[in-house]
Hints:
There is one protein chain. This protein is of the alpha/beta class. The protein has two domains: 6-155, Jelly Rolls; 191-489, NAD(P)-binding Rossmann-like Domain (Rossmann fold), CATH 3.40.50. Helices cover 26% and strands 23% of the residues. It is built from 13 helices and 26 strands. It has helices at 167-170, 175-178, 199-208, 230-235, 238-247, 261-266, 268-288, 324-339, 361-370, 388-400, 417-431, 466-471, 480-489; strands at 6-9, 16-19, 23-25, 28-30, 49-55, 60-65, 70-76, 78-84, 96-102, 107-111, 116-121, 126-132, 142-143, 191-194, 213-217, 226-227, 251-254, 292-298, 344-348, 351-352, 375-378, 382-383, 386-387, 405-408, 415-416, 443-446. The strands form seven sheets. It has a seven-stranded parallel β-sheet with strand order 16-15-14-17-18-19-24, sandwiched between helices. Strands 1-2-10-7-12-5 form a six-stranded antiparallel β-sheet, with no helix packed on it. Strand 3 (23-25) and strand 4 (28-30) form a beta hairpin. It is elongated. The two termini are 47 Å apart. It comes from Coccolithus braarudii. Residues 190-490 form the RmlD-like substrate binding domain.
Amino acid sequence: KNMAPVTKELPVHGSSVTSFDRYGDSRGYFNELYNADKYDESLNQEWKQVSFSSSQKHALRGLHCSPHGKFITCVRGAFYDVIADFREDSPTFGRWCGVLLTEHNKKQVYVPAKCGHGFFTIEDDTCALYLQEGTFVPANEADTHPFDSLFNVAWPVPEGVTPVMSPKDIAAPHLCVRRPHLTNLEPRGRILIIGGSGQVGGALMNAFGARNCVGTYTEHKAEGMIHFDMAQASMNPQLADDLMKTVYPTLVLICAGFTWVDGCEAQQAKANQMNSKGPAIVAAAARAHGARTVWYSTDYVFDGGVQSDEGPYLEADKPNPLNVYGSSKLQGEREVLLADPSALVIRTNVVYGPEAVGKNFAYQLVRKLRAGELMNCPADQVNTPTYNRDLAEATKLLTAQSASGIFNIGGDELLGRYDFGLELIKAFNELTPDAPKLDANLLTSITTSNSGQAALRPLASGLKLDKLRDTLPGWKPRTVREALADWVKNPTGKALAD
């Protein structure tokens, strides 16, 4: 059965890539290049002109800026199609993205009006078909040099090859010549955060600067981010390769994963897809495109003293996971470092802090206690709780030093979950004097054996930070009270008191 065309957003605001199906038999094939009844409504334009170009191998066209949108299809050969956001009123101004279009991969690209557009051909006799929202008027076009320093497009030009360009494109000015006020504007960074819509991803976006990042989401659409499904990529590596070609990142931070510990017990295949195979495939794709990888693991790779020594643990201590979640993460560590030996693997634990959704332990605690509900907390599950902004800051510092291998990032305080809850209550009540007080009597201390949790948990766990301190002299994590003070002073995401 042939599928309807599927349109997905690209990192440049308003741009998109559409995948279509093709009808084939012994004679050949037939496919529609546009159908107003089937294509996404965002593409339901009154097309005013149809254009066609033919190019030799290694031809570079662009960057051409038109007052009209374009819908591009490769009908023969292959080319790397680029969209550059020239619109100063756009949230993605200064960003570019790319899509490989071939006669076989059944993809089309929509270029919004007033964006720069260009492509580099991979094969001889490459032909492109354009649907245009308006007619071509030379006086209304504004060309920009394809190697404009504000965008630094990573054209996939093979080493030793000089692109074939027209005299007009060679002579095209840089954007700052047309707009002198942009002369000192720094180019955007190209950091890809897989799982940018989550807690750790949001903290990383803030630490590295949202302007420098492209984030992804999986299930719940997040403004300004693009879709990527790690589980699907684990079964289809081409999806990871396509993502790298779209963003061409210099750094890939993978914080998406299947972190529901009890859920991993029932869904082992998903745990392995999200926590080991998928991240390894992404790391391999990143390495192939010249990017470095950072991936997040957990202290659940240890057993917390059940069968070996108690924590807190050093990076070199022998892992011994007790549950599927920990096992999948340990396998992920090995597979990511095998895919890219220069990757940075970060172990962390009990992450809390501001986030868009409001799911972490601190939010749950405040929400339940403000509603007057009892909350059971295991006193014997001991960790070193990690403030997400500390995790993001330390990650940024480690990447600046090109650190690789396994590093622990956590807090300094060794706390059972019940004691962690008490610390949060005390700090919240002190730091938010105008908010209703949280009643510590609603927090109940229990043991893990009485918690009803499906998966075994490491008890005496946590992470030692000796290696991190040696690498980042002077850096130290905030205490729970210091973290909450920072959170209250600099609120982002969902309000803690909601």
